[in-house]
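Quick one: structure for this chain?
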Amino acid sequence: ADLVNALRSLLKVLDELRRRIASPIRSNGHTIDLSGIYGALHDDKRTLIILLGSENTLRTFAEALGSMIYDIRRREGVVDPATTFVFDEADVFIPQNAGSAASEEEKESIGLSKKIATTLARRGRKYGLGLGIATQRIAYLDTSILAQIGTYFVGRLPRMTDRQRIKIGR
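Got it. Here's what it folds into:
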């Protein structure tokens, strides 16, 4: 009887851990896991926009979702529907460097977002995936990722360093 109760307790703990891992988005009692998001992205009757508050959480989530979609499309040869990952305030996601004042958690999450941005910029087009970035601080962005993006839409850039970065294309 003690062994049965211990196993039941262990199963409860494992089930709770499984639910936490499988459901990265939890809001007002509703959950959706990565496979649900993948399904919504591939439903031509839906538009999906994901907004998360914490920068570290958003960077980590972007890498998890982007990598999952990229890997599935690569394995299965899927190219439709066209899907674009847009990083607004891109200097938060793909900075030239993480900065010495950044915490280990922040450095790790920046590394993850730069990883998926690099993958999307270099190889995403082949699988119907794109990368859009928006920032007023282009001088702060990782130039190796910028070099892979073929199309630029440039608005007003208030700082000379940012205008020079666009002018020389690096």
